[in-house]
Amino acid sequence: MTFSDEEKILIKSLHLSRGYNASRLLAKFPDKGWTKRSINRLFQKLRETDTVDRRVGSGRLRSAQTEENIDLVDDLIVSQASDSACVKTKGRHFEYLL
Asked: Where does the chain have alpha helices with state H?
């Protein structure tokens, strides 16, 4: 379960200022689709980092797909191809007769 930034702030403020636990939050906001486990994970993150923001460096790494890298990979594929090869890369179709 992922929370929006607004939901994270709401949960954090109700937990810290009024002492709401996961069960009480679920009872107060039944239409949100939250789970007890996801709220407790958010509480754990809050205890460990004092924030509900993402940790620095978390998440998927950025792609290194550039025209230069695509050309380098294409050249590598061609150099390793057999005598007659049909190669598809990123929507491009190449046929090489070596």
From this structure: 5-18, 22-28, 36-49, 67-80
